[in-house]
TrEMBL record, chain A:
Record protein name field: Leucine-binding protein domain-containing protein
Pfam family, one: Peripla_BP_6
Keywords: Signal
Top-level taxon: Bacteria
TrEMBL record, chain B:
Keyword Nucleotide-binding carried by entry: no
Name recorded for this polypeptide: YNCE-like beta-propeller domain-containing protein
NCBIfam families the UniProt entry points to: beta_rpt_yvtn (TIGR02276), PQQ_ABC_repeats (TIGR03866)
Signal peptide per UniProt: 1-23
Keyword hit for Iron-sulfur: no
UniProt-listed Pfam families: YNCE (PF21783)
Record keywords, A-Z: Signal
Domain YNCE-like beta-propeller per the UniProt entry, residue ranges: 6-105
């Protein structure tokens, strides 16, 4: 879903050529596979799948940025023509080095730079200010994605119990997976669960580091016969999930 | 007090009869510009732009049309604009994040939804004194006072309820569960029905104030438009209550509902993301604010046709009209 959310925006921007820079951890391999899948779905192209091998080292150093400033242009100068750098760095040890330092001036998207997230501290639409204010009140810090998803989980349960008038796990679950379940969660549209893999359909915020969100996906023009949000992630015919 | 305001109302009525039909004044709150655009209804030209505190959204006139109340969500204040001088003459300490307001028919008390604090603030309009604060559900937004002034209703967007306050005691007497993210509440003129729009649920619930039970839910369907985009927000009765206009946000349409049958009879294409509108003088035109296209669409109430679009400020939110 995250890769699709970014990919749709890249296509909308007419930036279809993606230079992937990543480490080779299993997590990063998985994300890279998702980016390739998104490219195939939406007409993008991974021009090179580049493995970044420099050791991360310590991030906070005296005279630290000078070396990075030298290294990153060298690391990226042999890339084929590309519109964006798609960094995949789940361990978060080098991704931030890419921004403003690549050989060619290119935006950075992925796990750093422009990120796809269920929640961002810049997001204020559809009543979102309420959540932005609630977390600092409770925890004395701005909200992060995990705050939102945890809240979303409890809210889904509470809302299903309240709207269905039922409290047994079986009945609540049945209601949550039914067409009647329409969860309001500051995304400007009802959220619900996909019956085939129990993933939550939701618009994804693209942001990170900016004081206003850049956009939300699904993007205009990506159509689906039932839910626009089902253009993100694995749709019913594509899913291999099975519940016993 | 009541006889005084009655006298004032009579005087205003006489004044209206004495003066030949003149243009009405349309006020539009611009959420992103921190202004109110003032438009002449005859020429449909802006005649003034009034600066307000930050993030003006809810906009209502006093029953005598002398004062305009603008809820500034980020300013944590309500600006009171003198409709003669078109200047902010005083402010009301509304409490944090005021969004929508309702004024009782006598024009004495203002009921304010404090979105961020899950409160309804009840305030004396003249003195600005807080009379009471009533805790309601999370994210209160829509506010309505019943025509007999007995009840005030607040809708809570996160809790999905219409909360009913008894105005004699300022206590909650009922909580009515409706569909997700209720935005606005309106009583019919006879007070026999309470209508509540659910934006994300995509329905309008009609509630019987005798029992505070939902008696009918109205949903929307437009061929070629995705169901999740049919999001009713504002509600305004027209043609003496025979029809109701409801702007449907991201579907860029205003639904027209037959209030007797409780069925949708028409959809009118307007600008992008209409949320709130208001009826013009004698109920002949309906003016709806389109948030994303920065304009107001003028709809003819008889023909149900969109006639014109009037540019206003950025992110227009609500409309109030002084005859």
């Amino acid at each position: 879903m995250r890769a699709d959310a970014i990919a749709q925006y890249m296509i909308w921007k007419k930036w279809p050529r993606w230079y992937v820079v990543r480490r080779d951890t299993p997590e990063d391999q998985d994300y890279a596979a998702q980016v390739k899948r998104s490219a195939a779905r939406y007409g993008g192209k991974v021009v090179e799948d580049h493995i970044y091998r420099l050791p991360p080292g310590a991030r906070n150093l005296d005279s630290g940025h000078q070396q990075v400033q030298q290294q990153i242009p060298m690391e990226t100068e042999s890339a084929p023509d590309h519109d964006v750098v798609w960094v995949i760095n789940s361990e978060d040890d080098f991704g931030d080095y890419l921004m403003y330092r690549t050989a060619l001036p290119r935006p950075v998207v992925g796990t750093q730079g422009l990120q796809a997230t269920a929640w961002d501290k810049s997001y204020t639409e559809s009543g979102g200010m309420h959540f932005q204010n609630a977390i600092p009140r409770l925890a004395d810090r701005p909200p992060v994605e995990r705050d939102y998803t945890a809240w979303l989980a409890f809210r889904a349960l509470a809302d299903a119990a309240m709207k269905s008038g039922k409290v047994t796990p079986k009945a609540v679950k049945r209601y949550m997976l039914s067409d009647d379940f329409k969860l309001e969660a500051f995304k400007g549209q009802a959220l619900s669960f996909r019956t085939w893999d129990h993933q939550m359909r939701q618009p994804i915020i693209l942001g990170g580091g900016t004081r206003v969100p850049v956009t939300t996906s699904p993007q205009e023009g990506f159509l689906h016969q039932y839910y626009l949000t089902d253009t993100l992630g694995f749709d019913k015919p594509e899913s291999k999930c099975k519940f016993k | 007090m009541t006889s005084n305001s009655l006298a004032a109302a009579c005087a205003t009525a006489l004044l209206l009869i004495a003066v030949p039909a003149s243009a009405a004044t349309i006020y539009v709150s611009n959420e992103k510009d921190n202004t109110v655009t003032v438009i002449d209804s005859e020429t449909l030209k802006p005649i003034n732009t009034i600066k307000t505190a930050r993030r003006p959204r809810g906009i209502v006139l006093s029953p005598d049309f002398k004062e305009l109340f603008v809820a500034a969500g980020d300013g944590d204040i309500i600006d009171v604009i003198d409709t003669e001088t078109m200047e902010v003459t005083r402010t009301l300490e509304s409490g944090p994040d005021p969004e929508l307001m309702a004024i009782d028919p006598a024009g004495e008390i203002i009921y304010i939804a404090n979105e961020d604090d899950s409160l309804v603030t009840i305030m004396d309009i003249k003195s600005g004194d807080v009379l009471a604060q009533v805790p309601v559900g999370v994210e209160p937004e829509g506010m309505a006072v019943s025509p007999d002034s007995k009840y005030t209703v607040a809708t809570s967007e996160s809790t999905s309820m219409a909360h009913v306050i008894d105005n004699a005691t300022n206590k909650l007497i009922a909580n009515v569960l409706v569909d997700s993210r209720p935005r606005e509440a309106k009583f019919t003129a006879d007070g026999k029905e309470l209508w509540v729009s659910s934006e994300v649920g995509g329905t309008i619930s009609v509630i019987d104030p005798k029992t505070w039970k939902v008696i009918k839910k109205i949903s929307f369907e437009v061929p070629g438009v995705r169901p999740e985009q049919l999001q009713p927000v504002g509600m305004d009765f027209a043609r003496d209550g025979k029809i109701l206009f409801s702007p449907l946000g991201p579907s860029n349409r205003v639904a027209v509902i037959d209030t007797a049958k409780k069925e949708v009879i028409d959809y009118i294409l307007v600008g992008q993301r209409p949320w709130h509108g208001e009826l013009g003088p004698e109920g002949k035109k309906y003016y709806v604010a389109n948030g994303l296209t920065n304009d107001v669409t003028v709809i003819d109430v008889d023909s149900l046709k969109a006639e014109k679009s009037v540019p206003v400020g950025r992110l227009p939110w609500g409309v109030a009209i002084k005859p």
